[in-house]
Fold these 2 entries.
Entry 1:
Amino acid sequence: MAKPSIPKGTRDFTPIEMAKRNYIFNTIRDVYHLFGFQQIETPAMENLSTLMGKYGEEGDKLLFKILNSGDFLKGINRDDLTSDNVAKLASQLCEKGLRYDLTVPFARFVVMHRDEIAFPFKRYQIQPVWRADRPQKGRYREFFQCDADVVGSDSLINEVELIQIIDEVFFRFGTRVAIKMNNRKILTGIAEIIGQPEKIVDITVAIDKLDKIGLDKVNEELLSKEISQEAIDILQPIILLEGTNDEKIVKLKTILAGSETGLKGVEELEFILSKVSKLGIRCDLDLDLTLARGLNYYTGAIFEVKALDVQIGSITGGGRYDNLTGVFGMPNVSGVGISFGADRIFDVLNQLELYPEDSLQTTQLVFVNFGSEEESYCLDILMKVRKAGIRAEIYPEAAKMKKQMSYADNKRIPYVALVGANEMESGKINLKNMITGEQEPVTVEELISKLS
């Protein structure tokens, strides 16, 4: 019989790993609540008509499509089955797909529930998403996103608060990060001043890869997209712009003087940086003109967060999108959001060993089972202990002592309660500290006080 396995790019999680993941989710959830966000959920699968065309050509290729139920070949032209037109065939065989992110389903949610929600609407969502990507370190086909979005408000104060949320979350994790910022209007302005406005998507997709593939490869990709060498030469010093954020802003005002759209993007970034500078942000904030993010729906500020002490891809990202709900029949509703990549954060915290001991939520106390009479006696104590909020259990059968103690060791349970005939008679519990090996007789009240 073949050894069981799971698809590449997916993972199982042990109880300890789940405790760590829940620490991540709960930390992010607590910060979202601090800023007034409310939780929603959407289905794992959406109609493909909802998903297609929202992520650009490259994003569409990464959608997991679901075969129609029943006889999915019914009504299919047999010639199409043997053709090379995979996209056409998929459109006939599949009406649904697994969600690629949480933002597009959220836009669909807003349109469907517009009469039930108050604007501006601040929502957060912690759910898995799926991408048919090539698995590698830090990149999975199934992973969780932890999104927060505000829709129905044009105010850049929303961007300022999202930066504060990012800063607070990673401060609580004890992780050093850098927030990289840019603005799609600036990128549009750059495309205009190099004389290639119609090539904005090709330009942004290429320069977004600068960190991964290097300048030479970026230039090769730009040339392959029929962007002239002259335009590329003008582009180079812009994307390699150095200095402080303020110095870059000053230089951009000169560089983009001929682009109204580009200057609007500079103005927006200047406002955000000005407000944030007065808030005591602890993480690095860096204006990065190569940051483009591959999602076509961004229209204003864009964010990406990198861990400073671990080599891994982006661990948080987001940005402003002005009309995402418009494709679902609800135009002119601006939104802005961020998404924490829980799976990459999990890897970062693992590598840096930053999980607090009490976050693992393991059992604190286990009662040894000496037999039926002792078992009944312990069950009564267990009820009192659990009411006091102590995580406790009893070994389910009167097995050998060595087996029961090994169980406590394997689960990393710090305390073991031994209650035999003598303890029942004295009304005391023999409490063993599994870390130090010390034992002491305690009352139920003393036990609760010690472990609370």
Entry 2:
Amino acid sequence: MRSNLEKLIAAYEAERASLTIEMEECVAEADYGKAYLFSKGIRQVNQQLQTLYNIQDKWHDEKERLVQWISYLEETKASNELSRHFTELIAENKEKLAALQHASAQKATPGRAVRDALDKLLTGEITGFALVFQESNRLSCHLRLVRRTLILTIPEIRRHKDDCTLEKRHLRKLKQLGFALYDNKDKLMLFAPYSAIDDIKAIQLVLARITFEVFNFKDFVGDTLLKYYP
């Protein structure tokens, strides 16, 4: 079964293909205004895909750069007298690319800390935990199980707005995921059923989308942790 990350990538790839077809049809009909709008959509999807591919493989950008550089060298070599020099450069860069591809294939399985915590919630080993996205700004999501309902809470909304940790675009995307404001608009909360394996997958998807759709996951590197409730 494909991971949630792979499903998201497939969905964005399908959206890009659809937007590309729409743009090409507009260009063929000389409707350049609509074509421009579709091109903007494609750029936005490309940005999301770049983020997703970098989560999937931290060497993605470097490998793409090497592929483009090797292609350029091979094209230049064909019309350049210094063919031996370019042959050596191509070989050197292909060796670097092969090393990165091998490293990607051999990389360790991503940590299961969040999945383990969600499993423990389902089995009753714990009643809740906090996923701290950014400890330096105290940006966190608290998860607590009450009977068969999982309550996700992002607290201190007013402080985060004052500190610009949460902007209007963040709040809008969080509401699109199902969060709503409570407690005098100082908490964002989401209530979800939680009694089966499929419910775990749904919550994993919500947390993943918060990390790399609502926010920029790179801002969380080295600043994220799990806290179990006593």
